[in-house]
Design brief:
Number of strands: 9
Strand content: 5-15%
Structural class: alpha+beta
Number of helices: 13
Oligomer: single chain
Helix content: 40-55%
Number of domains: 2
Strand order of the largest sheet: 3-2-9-6-7-8-5
């Protein structure tokens, strides 16, 4: 394949089931049967504490360093020692401040943002220029697409999404929602024809094919964003890593790279499965919920469920970078007096099947539970929720700060208490928010 002519989001990467490969490799390394069982039990944890991470590191799972023979974080499918390690710059940039170090000083943080913004914008332009349409059997050049089909100049919304993903410094008690603008949700993923095909306003009469097309659009948007982010992080790493003096900050940088790499490959692997079902669906499960119109929210985004409500089985870990993320997609579409919510996910995904099966069983006989379930999925488990500005402005400062925390606190190294409170709030969704 001539990749210079056919540069789809996923075709330039040789995808491997990294989670399965890690498991196979580590099974060969861990000789103690009890240790192996303990590793497997740790991998069922929603949150890995320091003891969990230390044990995993002793058994071959390296969170804070790169080994020469491990798969490179850039998703080239080459060993790190034969890939990015060879391109590390040796020049020392004394003015450079690592992201993790900049968090404790606002002046240094702004300096870091200016530098990272330059890198990000350069990578964005390069990727956007090279991208071809990601719709099945199409290789036409892309045009500028937008995730949402709103005129943001006329319809006012607020969002927590930033223009560049490097800008992710969040403090408890602050309000993270800002006025939504068109460029925040702009991406290059489709040609003009398939931009129109996937840019659909759903209703309760929509066909499954239309639902999958719109949900696929959300996947391509996220995949494009992660592709740019990972490549920008790669550029920063290659140029500046050897300028970091503190070993601790080097370790945290590597952890962040591995985390974004895992997030990126997880989205790309999901995208591939959806792409197979765009014309004839055999593998995508769709959940439909009809509700009264929402005067508060609009949503088109990926959803990352975390724990099943009945058996507390893990769906997604907040900080285990060695297991692929299980991704569903969500849309809340408001029309006249009704709201039509759709979820979709890959049928063969056992964790997602259990999550939806258990929650749908719980809400079946409870008044307003559907509305609260959708509301809290949108607020807590997505990034791109839009609140109508008129609704948001009427909230108290305390509720604005609470919504900000519930939406955005996906910590690099989470505080267990804060994560517990957040998930307890979600587990009690029938007493939580109702945006309908």
């Amino acid at each position: 394949m001539d990749k210079s002519k056919n540069n789809k989001l996923v075709e330039e990467y040789d995808f491997i089931d990294r989670a399965a490969l890690y498991k196979e490799l580590k099974n060969n390394q861990i000789s103690n049967e009890d240790a192996q069982k303990f590793v497997e039990s740790i991998f069922e944890n929603y949150f890995l504490d320091n003891d969990n991470i230390n044990f995993l590191q002793m058994n071959g799972y390296h969170f804070f360093s790169f080994l020469d023979d491990e798969l490179c974080f850039c998703l080239s499918a080459k060993p790190y020692g034969e890939c990015c390690k060879l391109n590390l710059k040796t020049d020392i940039h004394k003015e450079y401040v690592a992201f993790e170090k900049s968090l404790v000083n606002d002046k240094e943080y702004q300096k870091y943002l200016l530098n990272s913004q330059e890198i990000y914008q350069a990578v964005y332009k390069k990727v956007a220029k090279q991208e071809v349409c990601n719709y099945v059997s199409c290789s036409e050049p892309t045009v500028a697409n937008n995730l949402y089909n709103f005129d943001f100049a006329k319809q006012k919304f607020v969002t927590t999404k930033k223009d560049i993903p490097f800008d992710n410094k969040y403090k408890m008690g602050d309000i993270f929602f800002d006025l939504a603008v068109k460029k925040t949700f702009t991406f290059n993923g489709f040609c003009k024809k398939h931009d129109e095909l996937t840019n659909i306003k759903l209703s309760k009469d929509s066909k499954d094919k239309d639902i999958i097309n719109l949900h696929y659009r959300a996947l391509v948007f996220k995949a494009f964003n992660y592709k740019v982010y990972l490549n920008a992080l790669k550029e920063e790493y290659l140029k500046y890593f050897n300028s970091i003096k503190e070993e601790g900050f080097k370790s945290l940088f590597i952890f962040r790279l591995k985390k974004v790499s895992n997030q990126t490959s997880s989205v790309f692997n999901t995208l591939v499965e959806y792409q197979k079902n765009l014309k004839t669906n055999n593998e995508i499960e769709i959940v439909k919920i009809n509700l009264p119109v929402s005067e508060a929210i609009e949503v088109l985004d990926l959803v990352y469920p975390q724990i099943c409500p009945n058996d507390f089985k893990l769906v997604n870990s907040v900080n285990n970078i060695f297991i692929q993320e299980n991704i569903a997609i969500m849309n809340v579409a408001n029309e006249n007096k009704h709201s039509f919510t759709t979820f979709s996910y890959i049928k063969s995904n056992k964790a997602l099947n259990e999550f939806f099966k258990q929650y749908l069983k719980i809400i079946k006989d409870k008044a307003k539970s559907e509305a609260a379930f959708v509301s809290n999925c949108a607020l807590i488990l997505t990034d791109n929720i839009l609140f109508k500005q008129e609704y948001f402005d009427q909230l108290s400062q305390e509720n604005k700060a609470l919504f900000s925390a519930l939406n955005k606190f996906r910590f690099e190294n989470p505080n267990m208490g804060q994560e517990y409170i957040k998930m307890k709030f979600f587990a009690g969704f029938n007493k939580g928010n109702n945006f309908f």
